[in-house]
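Lab manual, section 2.4: Encoding a predicted structure.

Procedure: take the sequence of the chain (511 residues), apply the prediction step described in section 2.3, and record the output as structure tokens. A sample record is shown.
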Amino acid sequence: MIFGRVKPLDAILATAEKRGLERTLGAFQLTMLGIGAVIGTGIFVLTSEAAQKAGPGMMISFVIAGFVCAVAALCYSELASMVPVAGSAYTYTYAVMGELLAWMVGWALILEYAVGASAVAVGWSGYVVGQLRNLLGIDIPMEWVNGPSAGGYVNLPAMIITVLVTWLLVVGTTESARVNAVLVAIKVAALTLFIVLSIPMMNVENFQPFMPTGMVGVAGAAASIFFAYVGFDAVSTAAEETKNPQRNVPIGLIASLLFCTIFYILVSAGAIGSPLGAQPVRDAAGTLLAPGSSEIAARCQALVAGGALEPLPCSREALAHVLRTFGWVKIGNLIGLAATLALPSVVLMMMFGQTRVFFTMARDGLLPDKLASVHPRYKTPHVVTVVTGIAATIAAAFLPVGKLADYSNSGTLFAFFMVAISVLVLRKVDPTRHRPFRTPAIWIVAPLAIVGCLYLYFSLPLIAILVLPVWGALGLLIYFGYSRRRSYVGRGIIDVVDDPAMQPEIAKPLD
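Recorded output:
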């Protein structure tokens, strides 16, 4: 039976009980954790993309994306509190829906993590190029900071940062909590400064027309900037270490998402109200141009060459560009510097997450044992890290940030969709099992998460919608051609190998 291979939840829970984690986190700590995990990716990178798709209506897009994240996060929390072990949504699905769907979720998480890391790397590239030009007067030829779709050869800075992060992960150099806290402070301070300077000077006339591309454009922008919220699951995965999780987890989730949504709306309002405005760029005939295309790149160059300000949808460092337009040139450069410092940590954490999902899948026998091998000196999963790094580098070299974010979102939305279904299934088949956190109003919240994920998914560009089934079909070929007959669960081996004691840094390779 295809759906019959379920990884025993009792065995996974037995592993979780060995952790002995102390419950020390309160609502405030969880909220700060969520804010730190979320801010710093999409808001620095995708504001211009949202402006091209929705114009000033991108403010509504942030609300829609934030709401879908909130209901998905509540579903995520219930499973995270019950199955607090490695593997994220992949492990949850394995325990509830079976091996095939777990494989599909794990396969989709490649889009979330590896492709997401590429998107952030490309966004970082735009800020670095701006910093070099404005601070040092160094102009990198555009052919070397754009992929072929935008009229270039490769995005060299994006390649460099992904290779560097791959090397750091191989040698085991990860940021400490203190460094991460400093980076969070830098990100929040930079965006707060942007709001304080831009909101008082905004021109309300720039908000008309508010929805130049209609609700379709607003939904498309919401589907893209969903990427700006990825990371909130850091709150739900901390449920096992939270005091009174039934109360504090939803507070931490909703408070962090509400804070970030309000933050994002204020940032977008400041950008819209600037002299740049936020109206989409059109060609000479008035046709809306696709973000990240060679056509919009050529149109932007023509506008600037004609003496016009570079429009917001054209900018690769949107927030810094807005402040420079207001006359705050040095502060705009500081905003750019903040993004330059903060975004590599996001690339690192996304690639770290990808390697750990791969590692867990290899420990379950679904991927080659070699991927679970550990470097004898650095005690890191060097093979899977290098494989992930190569894939992320290639994607970052040739694809624009908007397309990468859309591809990443398609995988993320599928994973969240499966988590919401898993919560409902487990409530039906095992209603008496202990749940440290229970999703409130589950029969309302989970269906809202399912419908919301589907709504955002089908609001993505057609190519991004098609990426998921094509990628999934490739995954099914690998599963039925290789993984199914090598699965430990399929062979009757139910020993739980995703015990924290078996994490890559201290684990031994499988025999």
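Check your result against the sample. The radius of gyration is 22 Å.
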